[in-house]
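Ticket #4471: structure export looks truncated?
Reporter: QA, pipeline team
Priority: medium

Steps to reproduce: submit the single chain below to the structure queue and open the exported record.
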Amino acid sequence: MAYAYRSRSCRVCEVHEERKETVSAHDCCRNWKGTSKGMEPDMAVEMTHKLNDSGCQIKVLHADNDSTTTSRLKVHFEDLEKKDDLNHVKKGFSKKLYELSKKYKELKHPDVIPYLVRCFMYKSLPGGKCLSNDALTSELRELVQQYNRRAESLQNMGSTQANENFNQIVGSKCPKARSYGGSSSFNSRLSAAVLQKNEGYTWLSMVNEASELSPGQFTMKVGETMNKKLERQRENQKTQTFKKRRIEKKKNRKLNEIEVESK
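Actual output as written to the record:
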């Protein structure tokens, strides 16, 4: 839909500045002078304006609880409605429960917190016994009240999972272990991630063909094979068996952690 980038560094500029030389004409990738924390809100405003100018009216924003980004967008789009993201709410709720588990042993059992987070009736508390700690009850009520106070933003929650997936693709093109922010290749790598997200693994052959070059028969064949593999993985992830297995693996990891901590 839209993408943007911010970079505070440019290797060419930095080399000339260090030598106190006049910076020659080049493809400069430095486009930000503020703090790193201000990058995300600025990009959000830019992309929302781009979409709005192209005729795509945005009524609702699904995002994490970054108040800075939301407040900046509200200045430009007063009628924009903010809704929470399902995954971030689950993670936030789960994180607070794990913090409480340091004080209350009742929450240390590997089945208790997943039960409270998922709230599905197919899985009961360990041994079918209720929790019976008055102090824990009081803290759980306060925790739930925090979510009650912003119940409006929790209704009809969306998901930023597609965005997280895109960030992972960007990470494969621009690994954090290496600094590409000061390189002119940074924007090209980001564009490659956008193409892979939208077109799949055959994007390189499509770029070659659009540039009147050979799409590459071997490249096309590899890309199509990887696309089919990805499609099979997506279909498998929708199955009940896969989801149950994922929950079971998470439970086993937690048990192993408890065992190691005890040792």
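Status: closed, not a bug. The export was complete when the record was re-opened. Leaving a note from the reviewer for reference: The first strand starts at residue 60 and ends at 63.
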